[in-house]
Amino acid sequence: SSRVVQIQSQMSERAVELLGLPEDRPCLLLDVGCGSGLSGDYISDEGHYWIGMDISPAMLDVAVEREVEGDLLLADVGHGIPFRPGMFDGCISISAVQWLCNADKKSHSPPKRLYRFFSTLYTALARGSRAVLQLYPENSEQLELITAQAMRAGFTGGMVVDYPNSAKAKKFFLCLFVGASGTLPKGLGTECADGEEIHQAKFTNERTRFRNAKGKSVKKSRDWILEKKERRRRQGKEVRADTKYTGRKRRPHF
């Protein structure tokens, strides 16, 4: 229906806006779950190029019939993104990623499929670029699962929620950064009546200066020791209390 098309194109527009693309040059974007290519039409109108992936041959047939400008690939993104490293300047996805939470086959493990998707997507994106994935989560556990796997794959960022107070217009956009962590964009309609902003979930770790490239704390640093002690406590082992001396270097003995 035309209403669905209208909502779809609004979300595509918002997703591309959240990518924060450079205005002076055309970019190459990946559209995950591109369907019949409605998002692609908007990307093309904006002067960018795109490649679309979808699991449904029927939807891609419609895209071919509509003579969309992007290249189309029939694939299950749960098997990974099959493109060379750093190829894309950004990725958008409209209403698709939540399907990776379903185990449609016995062999499907949602966390593994999500991790495979996010880790290969991370590789396929150029450093400093973004992925903006609009999704319809069934519940907070699903949101947590999706976000956790994205962070495990190396992304920073978090959820941008547009119109959080409206049952109808509320939209979730997982806004992910590759490499340098940007500032999470503000959701639309998040200003309350008294001008105060609703705070959004942020998944960036504030203490990044103690972390190495893989996002782990530098070995033998205070953070690393505290994390290790905390893990051992959770395992029910006896661990000495943390003090100001934890992780301090000893003076050399002469």
Structural account:
- With 254 residues, the protein is α/β, with parallel strands linked by helices.
- It has two domains: 1-203, 3-Layer(aba) Sandwich (Rossmann fold), CATH 3.40.50; 217-253, no CATH class.
- It is built from six helices and seven strands; from the N terminus they run H-E-H-E-H-E-E-H-E-H-E-E-H.
- It has helices spanning 2-19, 38-45, 57-65, 110-124, 140-152, 222-234, and strands at 28-32, 49-54, 71-74, 88-94, 125-135, 156-162, 171-177.
- Strands 3-2-1-4-5-7-6 form a seven-stranded mixed sheet, with helices on both faces.
- Strand 4 (88-94), helix 4 (110-124) and strand 5 form a beta-alpha-beta unit.
- Helix 1 (2-19) packs across helix 2 and helix 4 crosses helix 5 (140-152).
- It is elongated.
- It starts with a helix and ends in a 20-residue tail after the last helix.
- Mean pLDDT is 86; it is low at 204-209.
- Residues 30-106 form the Methyltransferase type domain.
- Keywords: Cytoplasm, Methyltransferase, Nucleus, S-adenosyl-L-methionine, Transferase.
- It is found in: Cytoplasm; Nucleus.
- This is 18S rRNA (guanine-N(7))-methyltransferase.
- Belongs to the class I-like SAM-binding methyltransferase superfamily. BUD23/WBSCR22 family.
